[in-house]
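Project outcomes to date are best conveyed with an example. Our students and postdoctoral researchers have been running inverse folding experiments weekly, and each run begins with a structure described purely in tokens. The record below, which covers 974 residues, was selected by the lab manager from last quarter's runs and is presented without edits.
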């Protein structure tokens, strides 16, 4: 979810007043309040008592109270990605209401534990704290939690990488199932809280995220993207999905049919929601429908029950639904069906039980409990990944003097979907608790900016407008410069320790605790000029919303006050370096036995919702800092604290040890120290491939991982760190791999022994590879994993069930999963590139038959293609192929037998064009040309026919498009 931009919150205050009015007490005798009755009977009773107007009002995110029945308001959506985060803006300032409770590692870190049992405990803690907040203020803190995010991390540049779990669907499914199960609790009839999976479907880019279409051919859809959602829903570990902003195969996800997909994966009712603003995008940026009535009707028919739109104002949604009813686009039965799904959730949350159900007595005192702090520390520890440890650099000796260096050493950052930290244990704090002696520095330059004999001066205390004022450079004239890469810096005022921001959209103020907010107005660039001066450029996000003109450069007026202007009119500053961050870091490193350099990202700057990354590099200044410290003290350990793969090739070559962690919450410092000093043995594993510097990644908008060779599944590039990578302070041996036929598959077992001197966890990973196939197969694919703990000398036989059905592929010739006859490698190891034991099994499947194109075949079921994209056949359902001149699709292994004489193609086109039928290749023998006349629009379908010649026997058939058109199906006639 995102907030509206700019956030329109005027309606919040009015609704907040309405929500705080207590509903009248209803008689307890209503059957719907009797928990001894069957659930469906209770739902039917309440549904029958609601008026049509009341039902329609409940289709908005903010469901109003029904006083006459004693029913209070209900709000969908509390963000809870890695702890209770925030609720929609209804405070007195119209701002996000942010929780202050237990913040666990970011989602990609939770998955990095490879420990579903632990993640389930984290989910339980989050669900419990959500209940605690709900007990304090149920009108703000709803119990439908918008988490987890299960979108696959197929591209490491995705701005929301920190929110997902993995590039692998099996691992994503296991972790999301664990987190969702923990949130829900184990009661069979009631929910502690209600997890909602985000964002259905194929949502992995922020650039033009509401207008781009994710083109998913059937194999990618069914083998890759769907399993990420299906696993948790099939396990009953989620109560609905949130639709994504993007389009999928040309159709907005907001109206992609959920009834024929997600609702078929579970026997539980689901309550599905739109993402924020999604309903209005249908008539706005997407221009998919002419009226909001049509859009609303399509959403409800597609299976969306809650409209997250117009902030707290439900009136536009109510009006649109009423218009849809009056126009016959919806029936009252459609409304009843949607409200029935809403009620199924509200009942399971215990809302209508007299005692609130089994979780109804949880109170606010559960928030930030000692137990949750302990769990947060353990989780942050298990999530950390040891990337390199040459020469047993780690663990450190407590007797050593440590130089703790780096821009992230003294701080902890939160992210967009994080709650506020109730306390902070920084990396420096954690190391200080262990080391005999420490010396520390952030390693950042401290500067002053002067022009015309006056220095840029900040305020003290809460901060004040910056202006050219003082004639000497004291604390109020000095700023620490933090480098986040690609020229972006933040300026922290020495006067009060707060960051400079353009928070009031006009001048600059030193008033922010950290870079934050939707627009992130704490970003600047210091641009050196040929004459030796420096321009200060504002570089905040979303400058298109800036109503102060096109200028982004700081200019000081005659009285010293600041504004923005163009580069040519900007003030030219003399930049004075008060102290050099690298010089201080080098001095500290030379004075110590070991240097620990803490570098990484700022979650609001280095990619975030609505902003993809353009680089995977570590910030240039941070890279230089590490290299200088290492040159001064070869015994250097790098702690890399960020949320995504980073191309740290030079660090991998030079420094002896690298430890990676996500932004891991208040206990980050303790967790890092536990690992650095050996109290904990690292066992976190990467859930994504970390590419090498210079690796060419596919277009971020190309979702075909098979065609592009993306992720560890299909890439043949040698990565910097492979999927599943992670080191330990001990060693493990693998022996006696067996794959024994059992029932409907195999039992794979391997003996794992701790051959080192320390107790530790090993993440045992099972992969397979299919030798022969009709289609391109993964290089290897994760089929199972277990995190096992072993003391020195201890052995354990680790067993994995492997069903034959797990080895199935999506057969586009018959639109179903099938298992081919083939030999499969059984690969077990500690990472996808560290296979320790191998075996093979011969699987007796079924041969995929040759294609019969005399039957009508969907164009989208091609075997290969060039350039085309999948589009919507109609606005309600179906996929077609959208093509322009020179693009093609291919159908392989077609058996025409004695021959065919004609071809028919279902087409839609706005202008005349043609399709060539070629054999063997896109430039092969021309068998016929199909003329295509304009049909009157892309949804106006017609048939185009033509004779073909010399088409008999077996061929690969290519349809080569010679103009702009859509094709939905093809068939040949004898």
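After processing, the design step wrote out the following sequence:
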């Amino acid at each position: 979810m995102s907030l509206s931009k700019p956030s329109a919150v005027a309606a919040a205050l009015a609704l907040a007043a309405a929500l705080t009015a207590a509903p009248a007490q209803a008689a307890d005798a209503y059957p719907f309040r009797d928990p001894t009755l069957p659930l469906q009977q209770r739902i039917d009773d309440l549904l029958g008592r609601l008026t049509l107007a009341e039902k329609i009002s409940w289709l908005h995110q903010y469901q109003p109270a029904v006083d006459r029945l004693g029913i209070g308001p209900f709000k969908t959506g509390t963000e809870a990605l890695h702890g209770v985060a925030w609720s929609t803006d209804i405070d007195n300032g119209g701002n996000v209401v942010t929780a202050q409770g237990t913040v666990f590692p970011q989602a990609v870190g939770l998955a990095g534990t490879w420990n579903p049992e632990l993640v389930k405990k984290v989910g339980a803690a989050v669900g419990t704290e959500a209940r605690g907040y709900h007990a304090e203020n149920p009108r703000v803190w709803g119990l439908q939690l918008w988490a987890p995010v299960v979108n696959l991390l197929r591209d490491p540049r995705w701005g929301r990488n920190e929110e997902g779990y993995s590039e692998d669907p099996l691992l994503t499914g296991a972790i999301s199932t664990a987190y969702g199960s923990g949130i829900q609790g184990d009661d069979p009839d009631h929910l502690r809280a209600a997890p909602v999976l985000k964002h259905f479907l194929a949502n992995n880019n922020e650039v033009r995220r509401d207008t781009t279409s994710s083109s998913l051919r059937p194999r990618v859809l069914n083998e890759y993207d769907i399993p990420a959602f299906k696993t948790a829903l099939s396990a009953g570990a989620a109560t609905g999905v949130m639709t994504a902003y993007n389009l999928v195969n040309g159709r907005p996800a907001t109206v992609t049919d959920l009834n024929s997909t997600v609702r078929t994966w579970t026997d539980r009712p689901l309550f599905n929601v739109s993402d924020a603003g999604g309903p209005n995008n249908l008539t706005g940026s997407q221009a998919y429908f002419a009226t909001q009535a049509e859009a609303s009707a399509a959403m409800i028919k597609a299976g969306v029950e809650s409209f997250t739109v117009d902030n707290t104002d439900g009136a536009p949604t109510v009006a649109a639904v009423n218009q849809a009813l009056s126009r016959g686009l919806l029936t009252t039965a459609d409304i009843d069906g949607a409200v029935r799904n809403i009620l199924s959730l509200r009942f399971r949350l215990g809302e209508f039980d007299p005692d609130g159900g089994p979780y109804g007595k949880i109170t606010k005192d559960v928030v930030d409990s000692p137990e949750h702090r302990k769990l947060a520390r353990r989780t942050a520890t298990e999530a950390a990944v040891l990337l390199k440890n040459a020469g047993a650099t780690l663990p450190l000796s407590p007797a050593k003097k440590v130089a703790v260096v780096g821009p992230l050493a003294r701080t902890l950052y939160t992210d967009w979907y994080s709650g506020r930290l109730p306390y902070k244990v920084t990396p420096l704090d954690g190391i200080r608790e262990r080391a005999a002696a420490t010396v520390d520095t952030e390693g950042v330059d401290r500067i002053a900016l002067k022009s015309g004999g006056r220095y840029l001066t900040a305020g003290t205390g809460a901060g004040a407008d910056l202006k050219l004022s003082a004639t000497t450079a004291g604390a109020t004239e000095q700023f620490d410069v933090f480098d986040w890469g690609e020229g972006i810096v933040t300026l922290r005022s020495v006067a009060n320790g707060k960051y400079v921001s353009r928070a009031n959209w006009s001048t600059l103020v030193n008033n922010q605790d950290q870079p934050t907010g939707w627009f992130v107005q704490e970003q600047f660039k210091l641009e050196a000029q040929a004459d030796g001066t420096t321009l200060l450029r504002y570089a905040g996000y979303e400058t298109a919303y800036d109503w102060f003109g096109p200028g982004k450069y700081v200019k000081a007026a005659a009285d010293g006050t600041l504004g923005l202007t163009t580069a040519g009119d900007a003030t030219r500053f003399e930049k004075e370096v008060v102290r050099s961050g690298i010089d201080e870091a080098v001095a500290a490193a030379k004075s110590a036995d070991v240097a620990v350099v803490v570098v990484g990202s700022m979650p609001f700057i280095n990619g975030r919702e609505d902003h993809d990354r353009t680089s995977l590099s570590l910030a240039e200044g941070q890279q230089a800092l590490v290299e200088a410290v290492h040159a001064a003290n070869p015994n250097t350990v790098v702690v890399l604290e960020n949320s995504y793969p980073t191309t740290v090739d030079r660090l991998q070559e030079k420094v002896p040890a690298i430890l990676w962690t996500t932004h891991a919450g208040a206990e980050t410092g303790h967790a890092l120290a536990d690992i650095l000093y050996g109290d904990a043995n690292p066992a976190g594993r990467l859930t994504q491939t970390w590419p090498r510097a210079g690796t060419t990644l596919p277009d971020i908008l190309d979702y075909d991982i098979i065609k592009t060779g993306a992720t560890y599944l299909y890439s043949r590039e040698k990565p910097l760190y492979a999927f599943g990578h992670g080191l330990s302070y001990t060693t493990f041996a693998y022996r006696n791999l067996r794959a024994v036929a059992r029932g409907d598959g195999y039992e794979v077992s391997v003996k794992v022994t701790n051959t080192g001197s320390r107790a530790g966890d090993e993440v045992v990973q099972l992969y397979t590879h299919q030798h022969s196939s009709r289609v391109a197969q993964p290089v290897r694919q994760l089929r199972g994993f277990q995190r096992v703990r072993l003391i020195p000398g201890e052995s354990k036989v680790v067993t994995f069930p492997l069903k034959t059905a797990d080895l199935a592929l999506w057969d586009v010739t018959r639109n179903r999963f099938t298992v081919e006859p083939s030999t499969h490698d059984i690969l077990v190891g500690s990472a996808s590139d560290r296979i320790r034991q191998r075996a093979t099994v011969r699987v007796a499947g079924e041969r995929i038959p040759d294609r019969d194109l005399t039957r009508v075949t969907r164009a989208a079921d091609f075997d290969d293609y060039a350039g085309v994209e999948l589009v919507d056949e109609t606005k309600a359902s179906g996929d077609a192929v959208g093509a322009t001149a020179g693009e093609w699709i291919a159908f392989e292994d077609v058996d025409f037998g004695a021959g065919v004489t004609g071809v028919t193609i279902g087409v839609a086109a706005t202008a005349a064009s043609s399709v060539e039928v070629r054999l063997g290749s896109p430039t092969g023998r021309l068998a016929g040309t199909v003329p295509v006349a304009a049909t009157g629009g892309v949804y106006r379908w017609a048939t185009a026919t033509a004779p073909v010649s010399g088409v008999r026997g077996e061929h690969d058939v290519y349809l080569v498009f010679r103009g702009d058109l859509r094709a939905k199906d093809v068939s040949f006639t004898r």
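The longest strand covers residues 732-742. Confidence is low (pLDDT under 50) at residues 4-26, 543-548. The training component of this project remains on track.
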